[in-house]
Write a structure and sequence with these properties.
The complex is a heterodimer of chains A (about 55) and B (about 140). Chain A is mostly helical and about 55 residues long. Helices cover about 70% and strands about 0% of the residues of chain A. The longest helix of chain A is centred in the N-terminal third of the chain and has 19 residues. Chain B is mostly helical and about 140 residues long. In chain B, about 75% of the residues lie in helices and about 0% in strands. Chain B is built from six helices and no strands. Chain B is globular, with a radius of gyration of 17 Å. Chain B starts with 10 loop residues before the first helix and ends with a helix. The chains are: A mainly alpha (about 55), B mainly alpha (about 140).
């Protein structure tokens, strides 16, 4: 039971992270991949922030 | 193709969300010793049995609950696409197929793998981002 609650909470925090960072917006993700005038580097900071925290784990 | 939607660069929101994602990855690893790779968890939630299946379903339930919770406590957030439900469904299927083919996605290879300095994950991340950049720019500017 404890395992399930922890997994549920981790999923929730992960999902909130996706929403807060704007990664739940398909247009924003695609604009990271678009190297034209619409380029939006936000995804790089999301990945960077996540990896930086994950390095401590 | 016509006009594609622009999105403003939001470094602080990106970093804050990234920190939340990283926190979820660390918590899952330290508490139950699992890697928070979304594609792998989703695949396992279908193919595994009993306890190995249950924590995966709980994680996915939490992931899906995040949207209604955010709506309830923080308000609406942007989801912009120029395509209808059918195309989004097709795209979702391709994402699922592609991430299984590559044995991982932006969370498993990208976050957890890079943080472990896994050579396999570093290569996978460079290759899938590279392929995605080529595909996106080809579709947007050369077709």
């Amino acid at each position: 039971m404890k395992t399930l609650i922890i997994a549920l909470l981790c999923g929730m925090v992960f999902g909130l992270g996706l929403i807060v960072s704007g990664m739940s917006n398909p247009a924003r993700v695609l604009n990271f991949l678009d190297w034209g005038p619409r380029w939006d580097p936000t995804l790089a900071l999301v990945l960077g922030g996540a990896v930086a925290v994950a390095l401590t784990g | 193709m016509n006009e594609w939607t622009s999105t403003p660069f939001e470094p602080w929101a990106g970093l804050a969300g990234g920190v939340l994602i990283g926190t979820a990855v660390v918590l899952l690893l330290l508490s139950i010793g699992k890697i928070a790779g979304i594609s792998g968890i989703t695949a396992g939630a279908i193919t595994k049995k009993h306890l190995e299946q249950h924590w995966r379903l709980a994680f996915l339930a939490g992931l899906l609950l995040a949207a209604p919770l955010y709506l309830l406590f923080a308000g609406p957030f942007e989801v912009q696409t120029q395509f209808g439900a059918i195309w989004m469904g097709v795209a979702g299927l391709l994402v699922g197929f592609g991430t299984r083919l590559g044995s991982g996605c932006t969370s498993g290879h990208g976050v957890a793998g890079l943080a472990r300095f896994s050579p396999r994950s570093i290569v996978a991340t460079l290759v899938f981002f590279g392929a995605a950049v080529i595909t996106t720019n080809t579709v947007r500017y050369f077709i």
